[in-house]
Amino acid sequence: MKPPRSSKNDVFLRYKLWLSAVSGEGIIGEGKYKLLRMIEKLGSLKAAAESLGVSYRKAWGDIKESEELLGYDLTEKTRGGVGGGNSVLTSKAKNLLEAYDALHKKMDNAIEDAYDDFKKKIS
Amino acid sequence: MKPPRSSKNDVFLRYKLWLSAVSGEGIIGEGKYKLLRMIEKLGSLKAAAESLGVSYRKAWGDIKESEELLGYDLTEKTRGGVGGGNSVLTSKAKNLLEAYDALHKKMDNAIEDAYDDFKKKIS
DNA sequence: AGTCGATATGTTATCTACTTCATATCGGTG
DNA sequence: CACCGATATGAAGTAGATAACATATCGACT
Known about the structure:
The structure is a homodimer of 123-residue chains. Chain A has helices at residues 30-42, 45-52, 56-70, 91-122; strands at 11-21, 26-28, 75-79, 85-89. The first copy, chain A, has 123 residues and is an alpha+beta fold. In chain A, a hairpin with a 4-residue loop joins strand 1 (11-21) and strand 2. The first copy, chain A, is elongated. Chain A binds chain B through residues 6, 8-22, 27, 69-71, 95-96, 98-99, 102-103, 106-107, 109-111, 113-114, 117-118, 121-122, and chain B through 6, 8-22, 27, 69-71, 95-96, 98-99, 102-103, 106-107, 109-111, 113-114, 117-118, 121-122.
């Protein structure tokens, strides 16, 4: 018989990766990454927050916190006008997202390499 | 003047790595790793929990949860007797810790490699 | 047989992060 | 120039995680 593809005791590796300030606060991780990408896509913080199922209050606070920690803006905000306002990514934000992508890719490769070895050891 | 070694806007990368069940619960990560290593060192769950500044209740629950998820014991428990009882690691637990160590080392290397590249990109 | 200290486990309180609510501000467009 | 909808921000309510508290159980040693 062939082995089951997964069992009750199946396990796998997970990891979180983030950029942090010396003070410990997270500047960008999975959550803020997704939020920024969604702002890029939708052109609005409100729409981005809603589409991710996170409160506007938190999304707004997250962006603000990151910007304060980094010392530069990640989004260019507009109030009033057509549609009430909007948010678009700054070029620095886009740059940061690119760098985060590359980093994540490298770590994904590393963990994939280490995974088989790990499973062999614990089985 | 020479540049400061660190500034207000200094940032660095951090990551967490853990073994997870399909259901999502963590089987072993930094916390349980430290707890198990401390049990190994001190020979008691109570002493280990206290030395790590975590409540006995939580430490006990953590170990139990991991054991249930893995389907095997990580500690051999004794009640009564000299000293009131004790906990020692099973060989499977030691094995798991070894594998976790190796994995972490690999990831540490990977992140170190990626770090300079990342910083160059975002600065 | 009684003592002692660790394991074992339910119950209640506290902490903290996030959501909800409330309210103000801005400015292009009709 | 009033209106609308997004940004901006304080304040209060909620839920999930952890700590604190309370008790029971076990068994070698005296």
